[in-house]
Design goal:
By secondary structure, the protein is an all-alpha fold. Helices cover about 75% and strands about 0% of the residues. The protein is elongated, with a radius of gyration of 29 Å.
């Protein structure tokens, strides 16, 4: 694996985009939209599980590589820090999936009579859990974006070296004629008056 700040920043940003896309695909908590269904939630949970696995793989690969060198890269820390909020989102989606599965089972056992009322009664709980998942996914993506920005910033040594090389490469400039005349003493009479 090539450890460059550009490739690390791109990998972190790409991961953030994946979490943003998943957040945008969560069912709406608007009461005018239909209640989420178990299949949709299970799909989102599967997508989230793949994203969490990707984060863990990034941490594993980078840790193994940097472990040989005896150091830890900031990108590794960025990927690792994003795992916690991502798992919080998975927990919230798991709670929604469990409750929807229970509702489906109750409907199967007791028939459709009263099923709509039970789902309506559960809607605030489902919406709350979806809100938690949405917030945790936002936190995950933001954490990855902050890590990408941190990784892509040049170090202070690099910045100082760039400033020295620019200063050494550019010769001193002479002042433009307007600046020279403006710098002339004011008590001197100009010709032509």
């Amino acid at each position: 694996m090539t450890d460059t700040s550009v490739s690390n920043a791109l990998a972190l940003r790409a991961s953030a985009l994946g979490f943003d896309a998943l957040r945008d695909n969560l069912p709406s908590t608007d009461p005018h939209h239909p209640s989420p269904d178990a299949v949709t939630i299970a799909r989102r949970l599967t997508e989230l599980s793949a994203l969490i696995t990707d984060l863990a793989d990034e941490v594993l690969l980078r840790s193994a590589e940097h472990g040989l060198e005896g150091r830890s890269a900031p990108a590794t820390v960025g990927f690792a820090a994003a795992i916690r909020p991502a798992c919080e989102a998975a927990s919230a989606l798991g709670a929604v999936a469990l409750r929807l599965s229970d509702l489906d089972q109750e409907e199967h056992l007791h028939g459709p009579l009263g099923a709509k009322d039970r789902r309506t009664a559960e809607r605030p709980l489902l919406d709350s859990a979806l809100g938690i998942a949405r917030g945790a996914l936002r936190e995950t993506a933001e954490s990855l974006r902050v890590a990408a920005a941190t990784v892509s910033l040049p170090s202070l040594r690099t910045q100082a070296a760039l400033l020295r090389s620019v200063a050494a490469a550019s010769p001193p400039r002479s002042l433009p004629p307007a600046a020279v005349s403006a710098a002339a003493p004011q008590n001197r009479m100009a010709r032509g008056r």
